[in-house]
Each structure stands twice: as C-alpha cells, then as structure tokens.
Amino acid sequence: MTVTEVTGKAVRATDRAAIDARIAACGAERVVVDLGAGDGLWAYRSARADAQAFVIAIDPVAENLAEASAKAAKKPERGGAPNAMFVVAAVESLPGDLAAVADELRVTLPWGSLMRGIILGDAAALAGIAGLLRPGATCRIVLNTRIFDDPVPIDARDLPEVTPGYVEETLVTRFAAAGLDITATRFLDAGEVAAIGTTWAKRLSHRRPPRSVLIEARRTATP
After folding, report:
1. Distance separating alpha carbons of residues 168 and 11, to the nearest angstrom
2. If one looks up domain 107-223 in CATH, what number appears?
C-alpha cells in the first residue's frame, strides 16, 4: 500500500523508494515516527531541531497536519524542514510502504481508536505499531489516565483504568504477542508531561496536572 502524504492542503501518494531517497538526501541517521501526531507541530519542531533525524508524523486526519506540513515545505532558511514528512493513516490501516521504517516511535496522549487499541492491548493496533519498527527499535507511549476521572468521557467508560500495575499484569503479554517487549512503565508527573512538548501535553499541563503512564517497549526480532 502506498503512502498518503500531506503538504499544506495538498495530498499526494508516495512510496517507500521515494521515502528512502529523501531520508538519504537529508543525511539523517535515524527515523523517528510520531504516531497519532495531532497537529504535527512536535514533529516539525523536532525535525528543525535535529538534522540527524528524519521525522514522520502520522495522523488519520489530513486537516490536522496541514499547518505543520506547510511550514515544513518552506525553504530551510524560511523555517522549512526537509527532514520532516506528514502522513495520513490510522493505526489499523498503516501503509505497507512504512513497514520497519522507524528507529524510534512515540505515541503521546492518544485518543480515539489508537488510545483504545493500546489500552486494551488490541492485536491489530499493536501489530500496526510493531510493524512500523525495525527489529530492536524503541517505542515510547504516554497515556493520559486523567480521562478516568469523573465525569468519564463516553469513549473511555468501558476501558480499564491504566496504571503501571495494569500494564505489567495485562499488557506485557499482549504486547509480547505483537513482538513488543515492554522494558519499563511508570507514572509521569505534570512537569514530565509538559516537557514532552506537544500542543496537547502543554494544554493539559496548564489546565490541570495530568496523571499519565509511560510505557517503553522494544521491537523484538520476531513476535
């Protein structure tokens, strides 16, 4: 399956050969994927700050990525980031041309099907995440457990509350079945969440200190 790329309001198809050529042209040493990227601004800023990283933002809503992708498309001297790419896709239908592309992957304060898939350890969602990672590559997931405070949003009412204990008791085996070895899990304090630097993390930290759980995992050679 080809890759749907966003540049401002324009959407076009690209493929793995073209992506690999762009990575090589940038001289990037590693590929960082931001899955559930929201407005894509973290990916844009990260690419601007680190020329050694090729950053791919993935979100299911093209409009979310329009502003950041337009910024990235400018000339570098005008704020552009040629080492950033913005892709439209959902975790359940990731394009095959992105298979094993990432050296690092992050999912920060997800919502919707991505959040549900991770919290429930859904096989399809975890397979999507694992499929983006090279063997040995790392994954960093931050889940906002403040959603379980009253009033609980409708989308979260049937979900188990996430704690490090829940991760260890339930998700370790489900991640392992997808080829993901959980290496650490713990609560993050408000300062750590704010330091993540995404628009949503900053907003949550200003409104109310978020209680969040970090899950770190590594892609095994085979599931």
Report:
1. 41
2. 3.40.50.150
Q: pTM value?
A: 0.91
Alpha carbons 149 and 161: distance in angstroms, whole number: 10
Q: Are 196 and 142 in contact (CB under 8 A)?
A: yes
Of 137, 138, 157, 140, nearest in space to 149 by CA: 157
Report d(CA 168, CA 164) in Å as an integer. Answer: 6
Which 3 state secondary structure label does DSSP give 199? helix
Lookup: tokens for 57 = 């933002």
Residues ≥6 apart with Cβ < 8 Å to 181: 175, 217, 218, 219, 220
CB atoms within 10 A of CB 153: 11
Name the strand (E) or helix (H) holding 2: none
Please say whether the beta carbons of 85 and 22 come within 8 A: yes
CATH homologous superfamily, domain 1-99: Vaccinia Virus protein VP39 (3.40.50.150)
Quick: pLDDT tens for 127-162: 999 999 999 999 999 998 765 454 545 566 678 888
